[in-house]
């Protein structure tokens, strides 16, 4: 099958259910935020974690909107390296965060996340998984250019 890039850009909701996955959750969220496809909504549902998950989630939106890095931009006329601060995260992602104080169970975290989706398409990524940087783009392309109702990605161990 040959993929042809889609010209539409529908919203895709990615549900991230999590429970006591503070060690892995930042990498999971980063793999979703740094997708090549830009029209993404993240819905993170913490099912009542007792580890550092809540602490991480409470600072996430601020970190995304303010964290910077300073790569070398050019060398000036005096042979000095000039660095220009840039925001670390893409700024065009929508994020919804839901936390619970007590364990609501895995099924409830999935169901609550899926009930909050507003995208044309939705998927989920468990809080300790990573996704390929082009996964959402490739899945949307398939859905938009073929007569199919469902697509899924393969797994790499």
Any overview of this molecule?
The chain is α/β, with parallel strands linked by helices and 157 residues long. Helix content is 28%, strand content 22%. It contains four helices and eight strands; from the N terminus they run E-H-E-H-E-E-E-E-E-H-E-H. The protein has helices spanning 25-33, 53-66, 106-115, 135-145; strands spanning 12-18, 40-46, 68-69, 72-75, 81-83, 86-87, 94-99, 121-124. The strands form three sheets. It has a four-stranded parallel sheet, with helices on both faces. A two-stranded antiparallel sheet has the order 3-6. A two-stranded antiparallel ribbon has the order 4-5. Strand 4 (72-75) and strand 5 (81-83) form a beta hairpin. The model has no long low-confidence stretch (mean pLDDT 93).
Question: Brief overview, please?
Answer:
The chain is an alpha/beta fold. Helices cover 28% and strands 22% of the residues. The strands form 3 sheets. The protein has a 4-stranded parallel sheet with strand order 7-2-1-8, with helices on both faces. A two-stranded antiparallel sheet has the order 3-6.
Task: List how many beta strands DSSP finds.
Answer: 8
Overall pLDDT confidence = 93
Quaternary organisation: single chain
Shape: globular
The helix content is: 25-40%
Strand order of the largest sheet: 7-2-1-8
Annotation field: number of helices: 4
Low-confidence stretches: none
Taking the alpha carbons of the first and last residues, their distance comes to 24 Å
**What's the helix-strand series?**
EHEHEEEEEHEH
> Sheet bearing the most strands, described?
4 strands, parallel
Sheet-strand content, in percent, reads 15-25%
